[in-house]
Amino acid sequence: MPPGTPVLDFVRYNQYLTGTKIGCREGDCGACTVLVGDLSTGELRYRTATSCLMPLGNAQGKHIVTIEGINMVELNPIQQAMADESATQCGFCTPGFVVSMAGFCLSKKAPTSQNAIAAVDGNICRCTGYKSIERAATRVAHLLEKRKTEEPVKFAANQAILPAYFTTIQERLQALSSSLNGELTNASPHAQRVGGGTDVYVQKHDEIKDASIRFLFDNTDLKGIRQDGNDCVIGPATTVTDLIESPLIQQYFPDFKHYTTLVSSTPIRNMATIGGNFINASPIGDFTIFFLALDATLTFSDGNLSRELPLRNLYQGYKMLDKRPEEYLEQIRFSLPAQNTQFNFEKVSKRTHLDIASVNSAINITVEDDLITHVRISAGGVAAIPKQLTKTAEFLTGKLLSEELIQKAISIAQTEIAPISDARGTEAYKRLLLGQLIKAHFIKLFPALEVEQLLKT
Amino acid sequence: MKNIDSRTHVRGESVYLDDIPTIRGTLFGAAFGSPVAHGLIKNLDLKAAEAMPGVVRILTYKDVTGENQIGGIIPDEPLLAEHHVDYCGMPVAFVVAETEDIARAAVKRITIDIEPLPVITDPREAQAAGQLIVPARTFRLGNTLTTWAECTYVIEGTTDTNGQEHLYIETQGAYAIPQENSGIKLYSSTQGPTAVQRAVARSSGLPMHEIDVDVTRLGGGFGGKEDQANMWAALCALAAHILNKPVKYSLHRMEDMAMTGKRHPYSSDFKLGLDKDLKMVAYEVTFYQNAGAAADLSPAVMERTLFHSTNTYFIPNVTATAYSCRTHLPPNTAFRGFGGPQGMFVIEAAIAKAAEELGINASVIQAKNLQQTGDEFPFGQKAQSEANACWSKANELYEIDEIRNKVDSFNTVNLLYKKGIALMPICFGISFTNTRMNQARALVHVYTDGSVGVSTGAVEMGQGVNTKMLQVAAHVFSIQPKRVKVLSTSTYRIANTSPSAASATADLNGKAVEIACTAIMNRLKAVAADELNVDVNTVSLQDEWVYVNGAQTDWDWNRLLIAAYANRVSLSEHGHYATPDIHYDKTLEKGHPFAYHVYGTAIVEVTVDCLRGTYETDAVKVVHDFGTSMNPLIDRGQIEGGIVQGIGWMTMEEVIFDKAGRLRSNALSTYKVPDIYSVPKEIAIEPLQTEAENLAIFRSKAVGEPPLMYGIGAYFALRNAVLAFNPSAKIPFDAPMTPEKVLLALYNINPAQHSMPHAHTQTANDLAVNP
């Protein structure tokens, strides 16, 4: 099978493991969720993935676990909880939920029902109304209460939450990875580059599966989050989950985890790369908006020469990039917010979670004694490209922060955007919403402002 | 008792259509749908597609061996388009290839030349142009015309409710396997095996007895697979019949969303008259149903709208008229509630508008007008009402005054967040409104080892009907549930079935199982009486033992069966049930169409983020009329699921067609159904346990559809929250209440006026339902 084949098709139609279901083929329903175990961090780590968007090439050297792989003779306690709570009706989405909960049991997340429910944030059920699934998730969280410091994989196997063979995987993967080195390299300059697959595979798996692909997801040169002086340097193959788990990001963006709950779902965050979000060039990419406000700088390489380009200059028009085909993204760099600099991210979509924004916006602002000394605001969903609102920022810079000033800034923002009406909202809505999100930035960051004044339109 | 499929479901071992192992030589189909909503086919070019290696055959209407027709109620829907196309996605050709990938790649190589004709997407426009599926119908009670003069208040208005995509997680599909002598074994993801069998028979030209439609379970249906599974089954069967090879087609999500119909959008006008005591005395309503391009089930859906036009209220003078309007959208179809929710939304909107104009709570009007037992529905049936019981119990149990106080004080101190509440009483009629469909059969075999096989016409799609069938058999025989197996639904075992729909599946099929089991039981008792030499009336069976006059004997279930077999007594029975007492006269629009009604009251509480226009449902608290639930676990699941699906319809689920009739919300990325974070934080369900006799199986009232309508309360709660922030908001009665509509209402923005002239307004003009 070509390495571009989605894991989903391999699992169902080559291995005949039909417990993994096809619901949407765009990562939006979770019926095809699998576990992916690897040793990239030195220890065995499992994360969930939607197998419809995951190319076989990204499975190289990893342990892929389908629902069949967590079945034991009797129901495992996750399955028992789902059955006991009547959390399965038609049953079609159920294996995906069970696998997602298994992923929770294998993670180091605290055993709270909140976290257990968060683990199924990428699974859609059309029958139950989720209340029974919430009850089952709470029971699953209870299973882990005694875990303390024990390694999650060992605990799950020892407690018979998951099959005993999980304890042998680390060794087997080590043996496998040493025998696989270099098998997937693709030197062709025309090869299509694929990171996490969460954009390029959406509704296009049949076109891409036979393509010549260079897989970037596991390229260690393109990974990592590190501090370099006052800068943060991120490898473009870093996933959203990597960012969430990064102590550096947590230190400088205490609300980062909260922002990311508004961005896709657990399995997608496990797969989606930051570089992919930039290169995909969606006018509404959440992390493009995030890093635009931070005025990130990109490094591109064609293999020989490197060049730097501010993220704000990457987008030339709808899905048009200042990037030659042979160039690839090597590095992302941005200044870490200084002490008196504040950051906020806002997003509104039709469905609050697991949805694409109607409008999103981020702000990075420095205020000293009510004087705005530096500000960058970005906005998505309001133009053909993800926008840095430069005129708005220019207007705000050097002025005293007031309700009136914000109102004026919003009217200036209106002049730099050109939203269109589409399935995510009408033009009038997106214009109003951007203004509201700008207000939300200031209300959140500057509690002293008069909210009543600001709410006026 | 838990759902009997739980174990295989949670292990991923339950078999759905696409999981059936394919037979060697199986070919794969894919439909080519019209890219244009309305037009004349000038040329269809298949050459490039046919030339692709692996393409076996491309079928068009010319290849149909029977009649090119699959319309159920009205024969107005071709299997494959002939000379004109009537909606985007209408199947024109069916590619059959060696692999699924080749079939889909070939579809992309087909080109079609269509001369476009005017496209109508709006039902009122269609009605004005005389484009009706069936003649309009009017239900009348009393005389509205002479009553207006007596009304103290007269409220008029317009409402719109949008469609709803079923979004069963398992897409539509079929797998046809030719049998010897022209027979076809057909696996289909259908709620209506007989409907599929009829459509296949008609289009292939084969008699029904050649076609075995076999259904194990569906990955969700919700009405979407009641009639609309026919197309894919008929295409696969036709191809299998012609090529004498197995042919399978499991639709991709985007094909499914683009090619199949949804819940009917409605646009409606109302006029409501109240007397000085706020009694509703006159109600006129006109429904414009957006039927789509063919009848499908639209006339029946329209009928149910009329049957539910007054919801749970008694209004002495009613004139309700409905038009089923032909537009150029995919034929809209059954969806949980089947037109009832659309009718109920209008009366609730009328009450809300009256309350807003009078400056009172809508619940004041609701409470004064709840139906009493004996009150007459506009269609003549007399109510056996639990409306007041549910309403009072909900108000007392959940302390509505306390809820109101909390909401008021929250709203007083909070500027950025506002809460709103609404009460949503429901009344939903159980039975197919087409009286003849209220019949069912069951085939029960008792084997000599004591095991029991049960076949019915019911299709398991998550609603737990097979579990209930098993309970009926185990109860009547008084044996352990594990002795009973409910078999797949097959047209070879059970003929002429009604679809699993109208919430009536468990009632109809359960009664048939009860009849069949009781017949066998009576024969077994006679055998026992004979063997034990006692009067048959003294014999009973309990927990697998024979009792005489209440005393246990040494005859157990197995011994009795062996004796019966040895005596050549039949251990099999085919039970037939027809709902008694129901009738309806369409010429008078009067009768007694429903076996019974299900009642309930929900209190819905929401919070709106008045800065961002987003919202959460805090709680849905329900008192629901179960009769006496035979399976509280399953029934609770139906209520929770129905509520969330109803809230989805009223809030985030937005079907968007552009004016050219193209579906813009065509994938899960653009059509959003509730996720785990968007459901109410609390759902409380309290049963109204009633002991009265009813026609439900074991007096356990039907529970599939009614709870969906509690979700309507979310719309009105959101409206109240918006009004708490902006009392001058002019909010059109236009569901769903998306975050967009909320934000625009919070800030008095009228999108039509406010849109700036811009190059992109062209796109705005193209949007049909989102001006």
Automatic annotation (TrEMBL), chain B:
Instruction: Name its species.
Output: Spirosoma arboris
Q: Where are the transmembrane segments?
A: none
Q: Annotated Gene Ontology MF terms?
A: 2 iron, 2 sulfur cluster binding; iron ion binding; oxidoreductase activity
Question: Which superkingdom heads the taxonomic lineage of this protein's source?
Answer: Bacteria
Q: Which SMART domains match?
A: Ald_Xan_dh_C
Give the range the annotation lists for the signal sequence: none
Q: Which InterPro entries match?
A: Ald_Oxase/Xan_DH_a/b, Ald_Oxase/Xan_DH_a/b_sf, Ald_Oxase/xanthine_DH-like, AldOxase/xan_DH_MoCoBD1, AldOxase/xan_DH_MoCoBD2, AldOxase/xan_DH_Mopterin-bd_sf
Pfam families annotated for this entry? Ald_Xan_dh_C, MoCoBD_1, MoCoBD_2
Name of the protein in question: Molybdopterin-dependent oxidoreductase
